[in-house]
Design goal:
By secondary structure, chain A is of the alpha/beta class. Chain A has helices at about 25-30, 60, 85-95, 185-195, 230-235, 265-270, 290-305, 320-330, 350, 360-370, 390-400, 410-415, 435-440, 445-470, 490-495; strands spanning about 15, 35-40, 45-50, 70, 100-105, 120, 140-145, 165-170, 170-175, 200, 220-225, 240-245, 255, 280, 310-315, 335-340, 345-350, 380-385, 405, 485, 500. Chain A is built from 15 helices and 21 strands. In chain A, strands 9-19-18-16-15-12-11-10 form an 8-stranded parallel sheet. Chain A has a 3-stranded mixed sheet with strand order 6-20-21, with helices on one face. A two-stranded antiparallel ribbon of chain A has the order 1-4. Chain B is of the alpha+beta class. Helix content of chain B is about 20%, strand content about 20%. Classes of the chains: A alpha/beta, B alpha+beta. Chains A and B meet through helix 1 of A and helix 1 and helix 2 of B.
């Protein structure tokens, strides 16, 4: 508090410690990476500097006697429905610094969540449901361009040349998170889990560390506007290539990995000097049109002998359906649409909270548009941005997605508590930090196990939900919007999602 | 002292320094396990004498590692002990400490190359204190509590 400008000193959380239960083990002191907990040897007391607390709960979960509570700071401005706490605090911060407010994770504002306004159908009497514990249930998903028509010879062999496909054992993938924004141990956790689950992880724009090449068959390598870490070996190491045009948390802007985070390993992988800022420009400077995008798609296909599908990832924005149609025509095999609840390692708060649209509506309109134009089969559609559980995924697939990307939930599986401090590089859970002391808080053995558990649990739930709909394959759910009904949605919302009102 | 830690393949606790996060929970668990009440609150705040952890988190950021008795194949402490307080159990290979015999001469503390022998009060006197691999537990307390698998209970032959 001392030496801090009082105008910047309104803080959000208070560390309450029941001193009758504190055993001075100093666990909370060593675990806090934001200098909020201190041990005073002279008084043999542990105390906290609440203004440093970010509410990540690292100390309270590690406390062996449960003596810590992280509570909202009851200190309050005069209640004002227009000037909410965060509006006031942000304004003061900016008046003090003159800077853009940076934050992490995805949009946390209370926009309408359409997943919560859709319900799933079930079989009763007239059509039988299926018990997935007794009968086979197919979750295997193929991503990539499907042929216009299929020709078979007399022996029943397919003679049509098929485009390369990604094979997923369950329709869930780990979305792009770069080495640098998350540390090596988290990358390894995700890569190991993807391999074990038979799905894919995505390098983000940070390149692929040498030691993770062994997971190449389960890796989607990204080629973003900064072109960090892109080399022929890199492109050929992955199972697919993704061109990153945009990100749901910050549509229309680039990325910036601060120089302090560019340590030895990251420098080598990104092919930039140690300590230099890694700046991804807002646009790809060689893509100003669909035609330019087509050139990059085919350059990448050429570089990998047409053996790998090429994906294009865009942020969900107002005109997403038309853009997706263009991307499909530009030759992409997969389109990933990232909604505004998708996370980020760092983005201006004003952008994260106000730019883009929810993935629910974006997926529905893209799928609809591609169907209308008769090109839906030419691309696979991957939904991203804010999937919290298996039912969100089932609903996304029913709206028309082929698979989904998860990243925030994946980080949560390895410990993330959504404290939104990713941009500070001091993550107490050892995720969005490259500090060697903090990074080792994620042991990839445990991280991979927890990720595998999460995806297995979700896959089992998806099977249950397919079963109750009387469906035995995820393919039959794709774009099957009749299985959804809207609750509490206006007519225009129902129309946009192309679902019926519950009861109809 | 020798690199080969034990001869007959017994399980001991191995620290994995690369995953130690200095959370000190091993110390709390050790202390609790070796307390009268087996309750961390009572062990720390009420019990007299206060139990002493037999493992110590050595912490010099970014390095952290929890170190406890290595049960050395050629144990300096056993060599140094004058009256047979510290002995090797020939069957298990474990270095045993008989508190009733200990006179508190601290030669073992002087001799231990890992610095893992401490002192603890026993009635009127102070006696030596070191890892006993938690005889009442299947897995030693420190290993069971470690949240990041930085301690493992293994037989490395």
């Amino acid at each position: 508090m001392l030496y801090k400008n009082p105008y910047n000193n309104y803080f959000d959380y208070v560390v309450q410690r029941d001193m009758d239960k504190c055993i001075r083990c100093k666990d909370c002191v060593t675990q806090c990476s934001y200098d909020a907990n201190f041990y005073d040897e002279e008084r043999d007391l542990i105390y906290s500097l609440d203004s440093n607390c970010v509410g990540c709960m690292r100390c309270s979960t590690f406390c062996p006697t449960d003596c810590i509570r992280i509570v909202r700071n009851p200190d309050t401005f005069r209640i004002n429905a227009n000037w909410k706490d965060n509006n006031v605090k942000d304004l003061y911060k900016q008046a003090g610094t003159g800077g853009i407010i940076i934050t992490g994770m995805g949009n946390d504002k209370p926009y309408k969540n359409y997943w919560e306004h859709m319900v799933i159908d079930a079989c009763q009497v007239t059509n039988p449901s299926i018990d997935p514990l007794r009968e086979p249930m197919e979750l295997r998903t193929f991503l990539g361009r499907k042929p216009d028509r299929l020709e078979v010879n007399k022996d029943g062999d397919i003679t049509t040349k098929l485009a390369p496909q990604l094979v997923l054992e369950t329709p869930i993938m780990f979305s792009a998170m770069s080495y640098g924004s998350i540390n090596y141990n988290v990358c390894e956790s995700v890569a190991r889990a993807a391999k074990e689950l038979g799905i894919y992880w995505n390098t983000g724009e940070g390149g692929l560390p040498d030691t993770l090449y062994e997971y190449g068959k389960h890796t989607i390598v990204q080629c973003a506007s900064g072109r960090f870490g892109v080399s022929p070996e890199y492109l050929n190491a992955g199972a697919a290539i993704e061109i990153k045009i945009g990100q749901g948390a910050k549509p229309g802007i680039g990325g910036h990995l601060p120089g302090e985070k560019v340590l030895e390993g990251i420098s080598r992988t990104r092919m930039i000097p140690v300590g230099t800022d890694a700046i991804s420009p807002a646009p790809h400077h060689d893509i100003y049109s669909i035609e330019d995008l087509r050139q990059l798609i085919y350059a990448l296909k050429e570089a990998t002998r047409y053996e790998k599908p090429v994906s294009v990832k865009i942020a969900a924005v107002h005109n997403v359906a038309a853009i997706a149609s263009g991307i499909a025509r530009a030759g992409a095999d997969i389109i990933a649409v990232d909604g505004f609840r998708g996370g980020t390692g760092a983005a201006p708060k004003s952008i994260r909270d106000n730019v883009g649209i929810p993935t629910e509506v974006a997926i529905a309109s893209v799928d609809q548009r591609l169907r209308e134009e008769g090109i839906r089969h030419q691309v696979s559609l991957v939904a991203a941005g804010g999937f919290r559980n298996s039912s969100d995924i089932v609903k996304a697939i029913a709206l028309g997605a082929d698979a989904v990307y998860i990243a925030t939930s994946a980080l949560m599986a390895v410990g993330c508590t959504l404290c939104q401090q990713c941009h500070r590089g001091r993550c107490a859970w050892g995720i969005t930090t490259n500090d060697p002391e903090l990074s080792k808080r994620v042991n990839p053995e445990i991280g991979a196990e927890r990720l595998v558990n999460l995806i297995r649990a979700w896959s089992n739930e998806i099977k249950e939900m397919l079963g109750l709909m009387g469906i035995n394959s995820i393919e039959s759910l794709k774009g099957n919007r009749d299985r959804l009904r809207g609750v509490g949605l206006s007519e225009i919302e129902l129309q946009t999602l192309d679902i019926k009102q519950a009861g109809m | 002292m020798t690199e080969k830690i034990n001869e007959d393949g017994m399980k001991i606790v191995y620290p994995r320094e690369q995953w130690c996060i200095a959370c000190n929970l091993c110390e709390v668990a050790c202390m609790t396990e070796h307390s009268r009440t087996k309750d961390p609150l009572r062990a720390y705040l009420i019990e007299k004498p206060r139990p002493v952890s037999r493992t110590k988190v050595e912490y010099l950021p970014p390095v952290a590692v929890s170190v406890m008795c290595r049960h050395c194949a050629e144990a300096e402490c056993v060599e140094a002990c004058k009256n047979g307080t510290l002995t090797r159990d020939e069957k298990t290979g474990k270095i045993e400490l008989d508190r009733d015999k200990c006179l508190g001469c601290w030669m073992c503390i002087m001799a231990c190359p890992y610095g893992v022998i401490t002192q603890v009060r026993k009635e009127e006197k102070a006696v030596a204190n070191k890892c006993d691999l938690c005889p009442d537990r299947e897995i030693p307390a420190c290993v069971a509590v470690c949240p990041n698998r930085a301690l493992v209970f293994e037989d490395r032959g």
